Amino acid sequence: MKGRNRWYAAPYIAWMILFTVVPMGLLLYYAFTDGNQSFSLASFQKFLDPVYIKVLGRSLWLAFLCTLICLVLGYPISYLLAHHKHGNFLSMLFILPMWMNFLLRTYAWMSLLENTGLINRLLTAIGFGQVTLLYNSGAVLLGMVYNFLPFMILPIYNSLQRMDRSLVEAAGDLGASPAAVFRRVTLPLSMPGVISGITMVFMPAVTTFVISRLLGGSQFMLFGDLIEQQFLQASNWNFGSALSVIMMVLILIGMAIVNKLGGNQSEGRTIM
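RE: above sequence
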């Protein structure tokens, strides 16, 4: 029986080897070699150029802001959905835009934010005049929040919905105020959803290149744009692979920090 179960896992193992292990191996190979296929750290040394450091800092900052805004907006929305009798139906409204192509959603924002778009026409009609809304960091941040907000709402909503409501009722019966119940019961129990949401938003936000290209213009480059440029335009696979490895390491470090802080916070508030 055990041998048969191993055969059931064979397609999954083959898939993982073909589409995860092999690409990762190629990425590491190109990252630690030069154009002559010799071991080299030149690509990592090249990354230390202030221009590339600035691009990385900009990407991390915008990804952090996007994650923070999504958390501030997503938690109250998830809380309201979890306590609404039609929460399942309402949550579908946040999923519906995700059924549309990612590029189409971003192009829609371009038409709204451009100088002759709907928003500028409304501002002009009420007397504010035309405002530059496109091709800047604000437009990129708006596009990130719009596209990634559902990834924050759904994990938190699932955690809150599956939470044992008897614990909340017990805390209230013991004299805890609503604020204390939320701080000591609801928030710690929802931390797994919060951590999942932060991870699911931060990872695509820090590596995105479509949003920055369309809403930020060619003059606004993020780390994802830089990696894509090295592979598709400069044909410098060694440097592009090194940049990808650096980004993966930073993401893994960020995930470890978030998981550690989330676990400590949950344990500390449970003990309190």
